[in-house]
Amino acid sequence: MRAIKLTGGTVVELDPPRVERRDLVLDGAVIEGEAPVAEVVDCTGCLLLPGLVVGHTHAYSALAAGMPVPPEPTRTFKEILEKVWWRLDVALDEASLLASARVAALDAALSGVTCVVDHHESPSFIDGSLDVLRTAFEEVGIRSVLTYGATDRHGPEGAQAGLQECERFLEAVEGAALTRGAVGLHAPFTCSDDTLAQAADLAARTGAWLHYHAAEGPDDQAAARERWGERLFHHLEGLGLLTERTLLAHGVDMDPGEGEAVAASGAWVAHQARSNMNNGVGYAGRLAYLPKVALGTDGIDDDILAELKSAFFRRRESAGPTVWPDPVGALARGHQLAAAMFGAPLGQLSRGAPADVTVLAYDPPTPLTEGSLGAHLIFGASSRHVRDVFVAGRPVVRDGRPVGVDEARIRAEARAAAKALFARMD
Ligand SMILES: [Zn+2]
What we know:
The chain has 426 residues and is of the alpha/beta class. The protein has two domains: 3-51 and 353-402, Urease, subunit C, domain 1, CATH 2.30.40.10; 52-341, Metal-dependent hydrolases (TIM Barrel, Alpha-Beta Barrel). The protein is 39% helix and 21% strand. The chain has helices at residues 77-91, 94-110, 129-140, 155-172, 193-206, 219-228, 232-238, 256-265, 273-279, 304-319, 327-342, 373-379, 407-425; strands at residues 3-7, 10-14, 17-21, 24-26, 37-42, 47-50, 52-57, 113-120, 143-150, 179-181, 183-185, 210-214, 246-250, 268-271, 293-295, 357-360, 386-391, 394-398, 401-402. Strands 7, 8, 9, 10, 11, 12, 13, 14 and 15 form a nine-stranded parallel beta sheet that branches. Strands 3-2-6-16-17-18-19 form a seven-stranded mixed beta sheet. It has a three-stranded mixed beta sheet with strand order 4-1-5, with no helix packed on it. A hairpin with a 2-residue loop joins strand 2 and strand 3 (17-21). The longest helix has 19 residues, at 407-425. The chain is globular, with a radius of gyration of 21 Å. Bound molecules: zinc ion. Zinc ion binds next to loops.
């Protein structure tokens, strides 16, 4: 493949932070390879960042804006699940899921995201659902790690079908360039002991990652107390569901001893400040003391730079003005998570790294240095500056427009699919 050369821009590395004026050659497989240059892209006045990563989201909820409101007000997190999200996911069929996933993949790419870790549920359409998501992400041209969240909330057959979909998909994506599979659970409080044990076994047997919600609201800890007589994360540890190939979403309700257990296990946690605020579940303050925390969007707009700002402000609000969170580290840990899940050094704009790059047309109004990079990410740059996105050396977004898909058509088809989906929800 012929290479693309990005000239005149400022290359930003996140881990460790580095800011440097230099050119980048993307040859498809690696950055700064030896391939002849086919196209030169002028990046004067631009920042070149390692492609951004969403550590946890739900492509199935991309059509949620404007959906029917719950028949009566929601009073608890469980009622938000029952009256909002579980009404939406059960109404999804193949066509509406594809429309939703195309919007999610498109919005992620337009926000500068090159890799999405997705957690999926569509109880009326399980078998083959991950193929539908894969189609959408690969059409747009970005990376994804896909899993089905197995759950017993539609009986043990539903849980089995979910785990089978994970296992089928893990085989289907073997050797794929842009896509990976994982083993998924919804959340411990909606899973039987048998389902939890089977998920741990499947992950151990296949070497796959585990991806599930844990302690998002109070329900997981309440169920752990009732069912097992111990705190949730200690029980998960005993079940083999806390390993260095585990990604937990949320971890809001976590005590200091549980935090230590999660850290010692090497498990990753995805933090979604905006979703937690929206659901009123409280602040996940324990996560500030854990080493492996990446940011996710939890189905809200796939804009990780917006999420970064919210996480920053929420931490400052909670911890007080003497605490200065590290936005550069927060983005860098997203790359570390994606690299671990992909088995490739994503996030490094250096020789031998996969050529995933986000170009921001952000010409800083004050000097940009390693020391000021974090402040520029919070108070200056945003996803409105995303100009170009390259994944594995291929252009995915150019001049703010998707390269491989028709944006207007995706949005028009989504509106039609949403109308039918909302009618099924009512
Ligand atoms: Zn989630």
